[in-house]
Structures are given as C-alpha cells and as structure tokens.
Specification:
4 copies of one chain form a homotetramer.
Chain A: H1 4-14, E1 21-26, E2 29-34, E3 41-42, E4 46-47, H2 49-68, E5 75-83, E6 93-102, E7 106-115, E8 123-130
Antiparallel strand pairs in A: 1-2, 2-6, 3-4, 5-8, 6-7, 7-8
GO molecular function (chains A, B, C, D): thiolester hydrolase activity
Domain Thioesterase (chains A, B, C, D): 44-118
Pfam families (chains A, B, C, D): 4HBT
C-alpha cells in the first residue's frame, strides 16, 4: 500500500505533466482535484472532455496505487465515460474513485466527477487497469 | 458541411490548446494526427492514455463538423476506449474516425488509433456527441 | 411517476417474456430480481452474461419509468457492463439501479448487479435511455 | 483453431439455450444469425436490446473460439453497446465480429449488428473476453 505522500511524490517525479492533486487515498478509494484554467476550457465556457477523462484516469490510478503500492507500469486498459452536466468554468474538477474490484492482474473502479462544491456530478466514468503480473 | 481548411481554422481560433492536425475530413470520416513529445509520454516510454482519449475525441468532433458544418456547441456525451497495444514513444498518434450514425441531435462514431506508420491499432474508441437542436 | 404495482402490471402486459420482478422503485432508483434456472446458466456453473445485461437493462428501465411514468417507447441507447466476479449458479440475480441524470430526453444510470445475498457485486453497468420528446 | 462445425456442435451441447446460428468463422472474425420471433420483440414492434447484446456476445465468443479452439471457460469481461437504429421486427439479427486484439489472456473485438438484408447497422458493440491462462 502507498500513502498520499508517497503517491504525490511519485506522480511529481514520474508524471511531471500531471496537474491533479491527490486529496485522499485509501480504503479502495481516492479523491483528486484538477485546477481549471485556460488550458482546460473549451468554447461555451466549459471544461473540455479530455480534462475530465484525465481526472477519471488519474483518480483510478491513485486509488489502485493506494492498495497495491507504487507499481508504475500499471496501465489503463479501458475507460468509459458519460458526460452528465456542463461543468463550471471557474471551479476545479474533482474526481472521486471507488474500486469495484481489485484482482491480481486487473482492477476496475468507478469515478464520479464534480465541479468543486457542486453536489450533482458532471460526469461518471468506469475504468479498468492492468496490473503487471507478480507485482502483488 | 465544413472543409478541412474551415475546420483547421476553427480549431485554431476556438481551441488554441488543441495539438491535433486535421489530415482528412469528409464522407462521414476524419483523420487527425497528434505529435508526441514530452507532454504526451508517461513512465515505461509510452504515450499517456489521456492523449489517446483526446485524439479520439477530436477525430470524432472533426468528422461530425465535416458533415454538419461549424457548430461549436456540439459536445461529447460519452466515450468508450479500449487500449490494445503499447504505442510507440517516438511516433505521432493518428486517429481515424468513421461515423456510425449521424442523427439530428446525436452522432456516434468509432475511432481506430494508431502509432503513425504501424499497421495494428494501439486503441479503439466509440463516442457519442450531442448536436444542439436546430443546428442542422 | 409510476408505482411498483403500475410498472409490474405494465411489464407483465407489454413484456410477457420478462422474468425480472420489481422489488423496489422510487427516488431515482430501482431494484429488480431475476430468478436463475436452466435458461440462465452457462458452462462452468455460472449465470450467462446476457442475463446480467438484461437485468441491468430492466433495472434502468424500471428506475426511469418510476420517475417519468409509463412511457413504453423509452428505449436503451447504450449500455456498458463490466463483469467483476463469477455469479452463483443457485442464487437469483439482483440489479440495483441509481439514476445519475434524468434529462428531458435522456436518462443515465448505473446498476450494481449481485448474486442475491452476496455482498460483493458480480457486475456493474452504466446505461443510457432515450425518452421520447414531449413525454415529460 | 476450431471450425464452424466444431463450434456449432459445441454451442449445441454446452449452450442448449443459444439460438444464434454460426454463419461464418475464421480470420479473426465471425458472423452469427439470430432468428427473431415472439421472444425477441418488445413494445413498438422492435427487437429487444438484450437480444442484440446476446448476439454481440455470441459473435465475439465464436470469433475467439475460431482462433483459440474450444475453450469453454473463456468468459466475457466487458461489453459496450450503442443502439443506432430501430431493428426490423420481421428480420433476423446478424452480428458480424472482427477481433481487434487477440492476446494470451485477453481478446477484444467489435461487432456490427444488422437487421438481415439491411445495409445500415442497428447497433455496434465492443467487448472483451478473458481467456483462461495456459489455454493457448
């Protein structure tokens, strides 16, 4: 298992492009927060779809690392996302992941995605990661 | 209907963050190319999942605009992606979209994603866009 | 809005092939139970995938009808399902749906699928229904 | 590898409930045909969603068995389906599967689903099967 600090440090060194901040991790779950600025917006004053996909992907990755420890080569094998409501252009995007299954070589989780401080989700994703054999 | 030049110009002005280049559009299809550099890589010497999701999203958007003209508020409602093989770290990512259905308010398409010059796809996506009522 | 009794009666008359029993409906949610017998099993002593897909589809339909009333032409537009664990061959399949969004013409919900009496889900689905314009 | 005859015989003995007929198998592809009668219809004079999901699932299974031989415990791990057009109530449902990837323990394929004799697809699915380790 990896702590919030260990995962934050790992992301900073291995994924320097990553903008998501780890807010919580543990108990087969994770919460990450992605600030929204110029790079994240699209026409209509809303957050772009790929930003929300990225948040879903990172939230899943963090929840899994929280359970299995730092295994960098754990990779996404599938992601399914539904966009539910227009996100706010001036609020961070929050991803809340709950793992549905953590097997030896496969992990599946769902991620609810919010505009920070707004109750109803803006998107919902389900994703699968492959865990390298022998790493747990 | 919008041409390759019109869509390229629209993307440049409305999505200045976009890196994908429109290679082909028309006949309910589109091909876009996304260069791969530091920002696109992740541990293990491979292209990050969100880059491929972004390419799938843009390829779909371009294919739809090619049919319905420039309708900026056409937005993604769902995306499902499967990652099939490890992309090359030193090749651009190419997305080839074919629309499966173009309705009045909904468009669905599939996108095959490649490392440029490699025959087997690295990912496959299916996505849905909502078209604002009255725009076609 | 439709009650459990109204939906049960409607399913019996309009979907005579349906085997799922409505256990609960209301508050943007529904629970349905599908008995498991010869028709539902497959090699390996487990419940077939299509049975679980059917339960997901029916649970969503019931949750939506519970909110919008009996609108028979409400139809599935997409379904994504992940199979998590082997279901028990001698327990009913239970589908618990929570709606994520109920718009004027589109509803999205997630469904957790269980072998009755077992805590961990055997599958998880997310589906979308189109509601005929003007029916709400 | 398994032939059309071997797969047909296997389905008849292991899945006696199966109604899909194997029309073609080989070259990482398969075509199956499912007759449409009372059991397959739903209100509005159309084929029920679960029938199309079943056809997608069987077409994938047949395409995989065609490549790896009869491995009964190969099981679906995910399925994503989009419904595109209303199927005809008086035509069989045809599923045409092409495998996107055939790995040692995972196979992914896409399935186009038609009302027999109609050019435009009624649905499109992408699914994943897990192949038991050691079986290929």
């Amino acid at each position: 298992m990896a702590t919030k600090e260990e995962i934050t440090e790992f992301l900073a060194s291995a994924f320097p492009q990553n903008k998501s901040i780890v807010e919580q991790v543990g108990n087969a779950s994770a919460t990450v927060i992605h600030p929204v600025g110029f790079d994240e917006l699209r026409p209509g004053g809303t957050v772009s779809g790929p930003v929300m996909m990225t948040v879903a992907d990172v939230a899943l990755y963090v929840a899994i690392l929280g359970e299995i420890g730092i295994v960098p080569l754990t990779v996404t094998t599938s992601l399914n996302i539904n966009f539910l409501r227009k996100p706010s252009a001036d609020r961070s995007i929050v991803g809340v992941c709950k793992l549905l299954k953590l097997g030896r070589t496969l992990a599946i989780g769902e991620v609810s995605i919010y505009s920070q401080g707004v109750a109803e989700p803006v998107a919902h994703a389900v994703g699968t990661y492959a865990i390298p054999p022998g790493s747990r």
